[in-house]
From TrEMBL:
Signal peptide: none annotated. Belongs to the G-protein coupled receptor 1 family. It comes from Pogonophryne albipinna. The keyword Glycosyltransferase does not apply. The lineage of its organism: Eukaryota, Metazoa, Chordata, Craniata, Vertebrata. The chain crosses the membrane at residues 33-58, 70-94, 114-133, 153-170, 202-220, 241-268, 288-306. This is G-protein coupled receptors family 1 profile domain-containing protein. It holds the Pfam family 7tm_1. Residues 48-303 form the G-protein coupled receptors family 1 profile domain. GO terms for cellular component: membrane. InterPro entries: GPCR_Rhodpsn, GPCR_Rhodpsn_7TM, HCARs. It is a multi-pass membrane protein.
Length: 347
């Protein structure tokens, strides 16, 4: 009886601030809906990405074909690794938690989410830059063209992304507790926390905003190139325009909304909005983060299937009844390998 009274007293003395810091879902029904969306994304995206991965390995033999296929293989690999993390995320949402209360599981989830999301963004950006040079500056030598001759560039990109995950491991990122002001903290602790929080937020925003600026630049110049093209094969240029435009649209749909929501949430924390408004901003941020996971579903559709040759290979392998009589599907990587990279496959 005394223990029950003590627990009741402790529970009633927990401040609303502490409940936000503990990452508890205040609207459990909404978070169960978020979990349902995540599960649906997994159900749709996992077999799609697995089938694409199968084609890259066993049909295209990506390591022998053009390096664009190497970039795309790494893109699909990043999406699949991200998909493996999502069921854990959905489980905690169902339990009414915004993240795991186990510190090891929480940090492991953050590491995987940010590493694979960073890889996805990086390989999308590199693919668009490569398409930009092939279309706008087809005869000019550039660093990317020299590097892409070696498949080790993909390994280098993964290694360069590892340091970017460090700030997310220093403090809890998942609940966006940046720049929170706890009255019980000492001034020196607040200063250290603010420095760490600022570093983490800089990494988060630059990882999204800088690639987005690059994508906009590449898209605008490729579109201008198409408008100036009066002779020659405009169809191939149109495919390049479709690629970079699709990349930018998907990027805007998946990553920009959660970036804006995080900015609003940070403003709410710094300006010390009322706790109910901070909680609403956090719920919005979590929902838009769930929306960003659709990237795993859209990547294969946009970056792989915009190539008519890859689409033909995919249909002939998994949906042969869709292949018209007389059409000869691509059965090996040799057909892809012999294609001039600046003339045929948009990817």
């Amino acid at each position: 009886m005394a223990n029950a009274t003590l627990l009741t007293t402790v529970s009633t003395t927990v401040s609303p601030y502490q409940s936000i810091e503990d990452c508890l879902a205040t609207n459990k029904a909404l978070y169960k809906f978020y979990a349902a969306v995540i599960i649906m994304i997994c159900i749709l995206a996992l077999p799609l990405n697995a089938s694409v991965l199968h084609l890259f390995i066993f049909k295209l033999k990506f390591w022998k074909s053009n390096t664009n296929n190497v970039f795309l293989f790494n893109l699909v690999l990043a999406d699949i690794l991200l998909l493996f993390c999502l069921p854990i995320k959905a489980y905690h949402f169902i339990q009414g938690e915004r993240r795991s209360d186990n510190d090891t599981v929480c940090k492991a989830m953050l590491f995987m989410l940010f590493l694979n999301r960073g890889a996805s963004i990086a390989f999308l950006t590199v693919t668009s830059i490569d398409r930009y040079f092939n279309v706008v500056h087809p005869g000019r030598k550039n660093l990317l063209r020299a590097l892409k001759k070696s498949p080790h560039i993909s390994i280098l990109i993964w290694l360069l992304l590892l340091p970017l995950t460090i700030p997310t491991m220093l403090k809890n990122f998942d609940c966006c507790n940046s720049h929170g002001k706890n009255p019980e903290d000492a001034p020196e602790d607040i200063l250290i926390k603010d420095v760490v929080d600022s570093l983490r937020e800089v990494v988060f925003f630059t990882q999204i905003l800088i690639p987005f600026i690059i994508l906009v630049y590449c898209t605008v110049h490729i579109v201008n190139r198409l408008r100036k093209k009066t002779v020659g094969n405009r169809t191939k240029l149109k495919r390049a325009v479709f690629l970079v435009t699709s990349v930018m649209v998907v990027f805007s749909l998946c990553f920009l909304p959660c970036t804006i929501a995080r900015m609003i949430l940070l403003i709410a924390r710094v300006q010390e909005w009322p706790l109910p408004q901070q909680d609403k901003a956090a719920v919005l941020f979590d929902g838009l983060m769930v929306l960003s996971y659709i990237d795993c579903l859209l990547d294969p559709l946009v970056y792989c299937f915009c190539s008519t040759k890859f689409k033909g290979l995919y249909c002939s392998t998994y949906f042969p009844f869709l292949v018209k009589d007389g059409e000869v599907p691509i059965e090996s990587s040799s057909a892809v390998h012999t294609l001039p990279p600046t003339r045929n496959t948009v990817i």
